[in-house]
Amino acid sequence: MQSIESKMVPGLFERFAARFEAERDALIALDGKVGDSDLGLTMSKAFKAARDKVLGEFADADIGTQMKQAGGAISKAAPSTMGTLMATGFLRGGKAMAEAEALDVAGLAAFWRAYADGVAQRGKAQLGDKTVLDVLDPIARAYEAQAAAGAELEVASAVAAKAAADALEATKDLVAQHGKAAAFQEKSRGLQDAGGTVACMLAEELNAFVQAAKG
Amino acid sequence: MQSIESKMVPGLFERFAARFEAERDALIALDGKVGDSDLGLTMSKAFKAARDKVLGEFADADIGTQMKQAGGAISKAAPSTMGTLMATGFLRGGKAMAEAEALDVAGLAAFWRAYADGVAQRGKAQLGDKTVLDVLDPIARAYEAQAAAGAELEVASAVAAKAAADALEATKDLVAQHGKAAAFQEKSRGLQDAGGTVACMLAEELNAFVQAAKG
Amino acid sequence: MKKFLNKPEDFVDEMLEGIYCAHPEVTYTADDLRCYVTANPVPGKVGIVTGGGSGHLPTFLGFVGKNMLDGCGVGGVFQSPSADQLAEVTRYVDQGAGVLYVYGNYTGDIMNFDMASELVELDDIETATVTGNDDVASSVVGEEHKRRGVAGIFFLYKAAGAAAARMLPLAEVARITEKARSRTRTMGVALSACIVPEIGKPGFEIGEDEMEIGMGIHGEPGISRKKLAAADDVVDEMMERIFAETDYAKGDEVAILMNGLGGTPKEELYILYRRVAKLMDEMGVKIRHVWLGEFATSMEMAGFSISVLHLDNELEPLIAAKADTPFFSYFAK
Amino acid sequence: MKKFLNKPEDFVDEMLEGIYCAHPEVTYTADDLRCYVTANPVPGKVGIVTGGGSGHLPTFLGFVGKNMLDGCGVGGVFQSPSADQLAEVTRYVDQGAGVLYVYGNYTGDIMNFDMASELVELDDIETATVTGNDDVASSVVGEEHKRRGVAGIFFLYKAAGAAAARMLPLAEVARITEKARSRTRTMGVALSACIVPEIGKPGFEIGEDEMEIGMGIHGEPGISRKKLAAADDVVDEMMERIFAETDYAKGDEVAILMNGLGGTPKEELYILYRRVAKLMDEMGVKIRHVWLGEFATSMEMAGFSISVLHLDNELEPLIAAKADTPFFSYFAK
Ligand SMILES: Nc1ncnc2c1ncn2[C@@H]1O[C@H](COP(=O)(O)OP(=O)(O)O)[C@@H](O)[C@H]1O
Ligand SMILES: Nc1ncnc2c1ncn2[C@@H]1O[C@H](COP(=O)(O)OP(=O)(O)O)[C@@H](O)[C@H]1O
Ligand SMILES: [Mg+2]
Ligand SMILES: [Mg+2]
Ligand SMILES: [Mg+2]
Ligand SMILES: [Mg+2]
């Protein structure tokens, strides 16, 4: 498989929705350590709303529109920090896709770059601030490198998922600078970032989706 | 010993105060069953205040004044239902003593009769309503009977204490008609009345005081 | 016991010190912090005096102020003030027109107010008495005189205060307050106990999933203890009791007090009120006034009560009158 | 979880339904219950809009009313309203003079208000922003921009609302509100957690004898967790932090907000306030205004906060101005 086609996108969002439904309590617990425990709620709501949107009126739209609509749905359904950032990411990523009918590795590189940059701009966070950006940026970089190397979609998405997992692990060494976790300062060291965990799950689900589509 | 003299009255109030201090938690628990748990607090405060009054400026006063002053102190220190009733009792009992220098069996009969009648009038309760009156009235009747029979003080006070204990036991069969306990209606049956318990303790301490003074 | 306290025995007096610091419009008389009075008595006006145990803020003292009460005897937690204290308050408050006592129907309070009125009679101060007994759960129909007073006494204060502010004579103020009393009904429900500071442990036990319908504000038991139900169902059960004793005609008007017992957040009170409004609407009864918040609490107890005053043409403008006390401000609309 | 609820997911919307039933002076726009606005916008006046998560009543929406706010975006429990909702509220509230955004310094809210202001720019609505960051415990001196907003935002609302009511232009209202922001400090302490209805369990654990000094209103940790101390000692520790960052001269004036977090009774707040008044008195600082009660809660959380606004001649009359909202009424004295 060389690319994800727009008619496959609803299936991808079904995966996202199912994953965040399944991780609801785990994310509540994770956010509860240095935050306000809402992340499991907001992410399950966010991706349920995104799925409903993409499965519904926009099942046949182009990929760019699907992604933007997913972003719009998330921004209404879950306007917390992560909800708003994920909404911004899908909106900007979708814009970068314009009216593309399919997403190949180069397209995914562009999508994730726009996604990560949108989040950085909206959240005014720097790399190393222990936020979702510290996982999103490595995902974008992985797809960019794979696109430059002309890698297959299956390979690229596996590499990106691995990069996300590593990046998430690396957030443990960082000290939170933003949001509710920042109040914990040094105490946040040793804990993986909650928002980064969400980004990692996105990369994982995307990869699992690609692998399943191949098989 | 034929009578309690005014100079002995401070000792009697030391007994009352010590007893209600010791019974504080038990009375809290008892009142808690069908009331608001305050009885242990109010009675320990009430008799501490009475003792301080009678031990202090009124140590050398006549018995009537001592009793009235005790009542006044109680009414200020613990104006709950039982506090106010006990205050009324001591005030009326003291009045009945006029300027007596000593309390013999006849004097005690008059004291307790005035005490019980004052409580009945202030609380507007009838005999059988499951209140302190159902113990006070038997105490008064016991002293009256003993006085009529010309009994010794030691005998009369022992008989009165026994009458109080029996009357308290008998309150178990009654259904509360007044105060917070009335809300429990039938559920109050089987429980001994909290206010009656206080009256019984007064009779017991008076008796113990008389027996100790004899010995 | 998790409370912000210094010594438990100083709870009431330190609370009063804080109140006097914060609110210069109230003060105390007879050199006794617990003899709480307005700093601005109105000459010639009937004085309104209340009193009762502490632990129910803003009840009782919180309603001393403009267009409401003039004085309050402050008791220990859940205990009556003394007859002496009530007499002192009465003497301060009397402005030559006599004094109305308005308080809850509890034995301890009754005896002390009665004693106080005997004491001030010696000073030629005329008094009259109305005892609030709005708690439907505390005795059956026909035995209303045994019912205890709870949050609904707010309406008695409001009516009495506004009537007195019109400079009506004592008998009139008493008659109007008595009318407000006879037309007020309250039902409450509790989810948790509270702790009297000097006792240090809860007054009763209640299961993690239980509610007590009709519980009194000192923890007196109610009508039934059952599993906590959905908010709408709880309201339905409570309102059924209130509706059962009142004849409402279509177009009748009521005032409603949704009262939190202390531990229940306002968010929940509004969810509950939503249902009350729906039931009233279905009956064709108009809610002319509603107040929602904490009016008669039991310190940190979780729970709430619904009080309904069946308005008439005489009571409505009194309830609608503006009022301003340290704990309750209302702009007439 | 012991709450009066129907379905947990309906908590916010049913609460809003109750509020709209009870208070005809507020309504909603864009057919969205969560776009909460005054029913009586004042032509030509700068609009003041706030917004934030639910679960803090009366914050945030409770201060929409006369002489205070004009609109509020209402989020889920502890969650920001959406940018779309804030934009709708802004469009309704704008009366040609522009709109001031006043809200707490939280990432989610900032992002959504920023997005909203971009959206309404397309409608030629001018906005300005002041974000409350009064919580001393949430970051050190020098890093004030990282501090979160808590109960002290009440003073920003009061100043902004009174300034706008004087028909001052947007830049002036913003300048004054910004000044109130820079002169407001808050310290809080919590004794217990609260439960978000849809989560169903407490956000954190705290021991039976512990307190958390500096805890945030969503349960964010504070400066230290220690054994619950005597009320006076707790106040001393909190006030020390506030005094440490403010230069008070003898004769300076302050306004104080003693705020209960939800589960702490007013009795305790007064005991605590008594100590605050004593400390201020020792410093020679005059407490010109004090409000005491529940202003910014965390549902049933036990605890309280002290907010201090260092007054000046410009702010004082604005803080003293009368105000009337469904949740807060104040007669100017
Ligand atoms: N300014 C920011 N920029 C980017 N990401 C941020 C920022 N602030 C917080 N985050 C991310 O958001 C996560 C928390 O999300 P969420 O629970 O939605 O926050 P909140 O409950 O405070 O609104 C953090 O783990 C972090 O990854
Ligand atoms: N009207 C009454 N007349 C006489 N005794 C009464 C009356 N009402 C209550 N009591 C007595 O008071 C006792 C309760 O006293 P107390 O705890 O002081 O009441 P409360 O806490 O309700 O003020 C009851 O056990 C009963 O003996
Ligand atoms: Mg969170
Ligand atoms: Mg009792
Ligand atoms: Mg409360
Ligand atoms: Mg949040």
Automatic annotation (TrEMBL), chains A, B:
Q: Where is the DhaL domain?
A: 7-208
* Classification via PROSITE patterns: DHAL (PS51480)
GO terms in the biological process aspect are:
glycerol catabolic process
Swiss-Prot/TrEMBL keywords: Kinase, Transferase
Per UniProt, what is one GO molecular function of this protein?
Answer: glycerone kinase activity
PANTHER family cross-referenced by the UniProt entry: TRIOKINASE/FMN CYCLASE, TRIOKINASE_FMN CYCLASE
The name this protein goes by in its record: Dihydroxyacetone kinase, C-terminal domain
- The record lists the organism as Aliiruegeria lutimaris
From TrEMBL, chains C, D:
Question: Boundaries of each DhaK domain copy?
Answer: 7-328
Q: Does the keyword Nucleotide-binding apply?
A: yes
Nucleotide-binding as a keyword of this entry, yes or no, is: yes
Q: Which GO terms describe its molecular function?
A: ATP binding; glycerone kinase activity
Q: Which domain of life is it from?
A: Bacteria
Q: Name one Pfam family in it.
A: Dak1
GO terms under biological process:
glycerol catabolic process
Q: Supply one GO CC term from the record.
A: cytosol
Entry-linked SUPFAM superfamilies: DAK1/DegV-like
Keywords noted in UniProt:
ATP-binding, Kinase, Nucleotide-binding, Transferase
Protein name as it appears in the record: Dihydroxyacetone kinase DhaK subunit
Name the source organism.
Aliiruegeria lutimaris
Specify the taxonomic lineage.
Bacteria, Pseudomonadati, Pseudomonadota, Alphaproteobacteria, Rhodobacterales
